[in-house]
């Protein structure tokens, strides 16, 4: 799934301003994440997660008991959660 250059440029600009762009998000089904206290923990699918986040800045993963959770990569690590409450994502 590739984005053409004008759409990609628009997406980069909106991400830099912190605006969510629904059409540029990706849902990934084969990654298993659980809530572990004040963080999320990755149980299965580390290579799939890293591959998906290598292509996109954010993906959505279904977390049991919480619904869809946005996972993003930042220079400080991986974070997940609803837009208003990002928590660290522990890979190991």
Per-chain topology:
Layout lengths: L4 H12 L9 E3 L3 E5 L2 E6 L1 H10 L2 E6 L3 E8 L2 E5 L5 E4 L2
Parallel strand pairs: 1-4, 3-7
Antiparallel strand pairs: 2-3, 4-5, 5-6, 6-7
Structure description:
This protein is of the alpha/beta class and 92 residues long. It has one domain. Helices cover 24% and strands 40% of the residues. It is built from two helices and seven strands; from the N terminus they run αβββαββββ. Strands 1-4-5-6-7-3-2 form a seven-stranded mixed beta sheet, covered by helices on one side. Strand 2 and strand 3 form a beta hairpin. The longest helix has 12 residues. The protein is globular. The termini are far apart.
Brief characterization of the structure:
By secondary structure, the protein is of the alpha/beta class. It contains two helices and seven strands; from the N terminus they run αβββαββββ.
């Amino acid at each position: 799934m590739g984005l053409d250059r004008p759409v990609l440029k628009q997406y980069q600009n909106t991400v830099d301003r912190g605006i969510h762009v629904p059409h540029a998000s990706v849902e990934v089904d084969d990654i298993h994440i659980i809530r572990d206290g004040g963080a999320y923990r990755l149980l299965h699918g580390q290579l799939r997660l890293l591959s998906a986040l290598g292509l996109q800045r954010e993906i959505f993963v279904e977390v049991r008991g919480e619904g869809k959770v946005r996972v993003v990569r930042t220079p400080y690590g991986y974070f997940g959660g609803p837009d208003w409450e990002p928590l660290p994502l522990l890979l190991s």
